[in-house]
Design goal:
By secondary structure, the protein is mainly alpha-helical. About 40% of the residues lie in helices and about 10% in strands. The chain has eight helices and four strands; from the N terminus they run ααββααβαβααα. The strands form two sheets. Strands 1-2 form a two-stranded antiparallel ribbon. The protein has a two-stranded parallel sheet with strand order 3-4.
């Protein structure tokens, strides 16, 4: 039964993502957003980053860029900007509306992500997982998930992982539908957009990671 439900889940992901992509090209959301990003800040319209997916496999996640490029993250006096200060005006709007996540449709289409599942984390974070926490890698990561509708960035990563494990242990298509409906409510209310709390898993990012778009303020 679980294998059959996972098959239906993948079929749903592929069908809905292709329909959404066609719809957004016709509107055309996927054309307007990149143009606005390029016109209002330096750098590429699309941000890519290596994340850890199902069974620990590394993949590239796609998002619309919401932050200044590294060379621009300095104040007039030369002070490095805090992560919150590095979010562009357009990026702030994209994050509030979750439109920055639209590019992940391509991740859903290529099978590295699903609409529902644990949010994909960075390699250095996974290295800090204990045996129980690694079980969150047993399913494809999601654009949204059980943790996102139960606190989102108000939760530390250790708390998020517990929700993710609960989701995996109790997976069903009805559970996915419940999460999708709750996601709409969370996005409309703009809950949990604040920065992630530091904890043992993400408190010490390597210097090379700190120079990139910080995971600690990613949804």
């Amino acid at each position: 039964m679980r294998k059959f439900q996972l098959f239906i889940k993948r079929a749903f992901d592929l069908t809905v993502s292709l329909i959404m992509l066609l719809f957004m090209i016709i509107i055309p959301i996927m054309i307007v957003i990149p143009i606005v990003i390029k016109l209002t800040s330096k750098g590429p319209a699309v941000f890519t980053q290596e994340r850890v997916g199902k069974d620990g496999k590394i993949f590239k996640i796609y998002k619309f860029r919401t932050m200044l490029i590294a060379e621009e993250r300095f104040a007039a006096d030369g002070r490095p900007l805090e992560p919150k200060e590095s979010i562009t005006k357009v990026g702030r709007f994209l994050r509030k509306t979750s439109l920055d996540e639209l590019m992940q449709i391509f991740n859903v289409i290529n099978g590295t992500m699903s609409f529902v599942g644990p949010r994909p984390t960075l390699p250095y974070q996974v290295e800090n997982y204990n045996e129980r926490q690694r079980t969150r890698l047993n399913m494809r990561p999601g654009v949204t998930g059980w943790a996102q509708v139960n606190g989102r960035n108000d939760l530390g990563w250790s708390e998020k992982i517990e929700y993710d494990i609960e989701y995996i242990e109790n997976f069903s298509l009805w559970f996915d539908i419940k999460i999708l409906f709750k996601t709409v409510a969370v996005v409309l209310k703009q809950d949990g957009i604040a920065f992630t709390k530091a904890d043992a898993i993400n408190a010490k990012a390597p210097k090379t990671q700190q120079e990139k778009e910080p995971e600690t303020i990613e949804k």
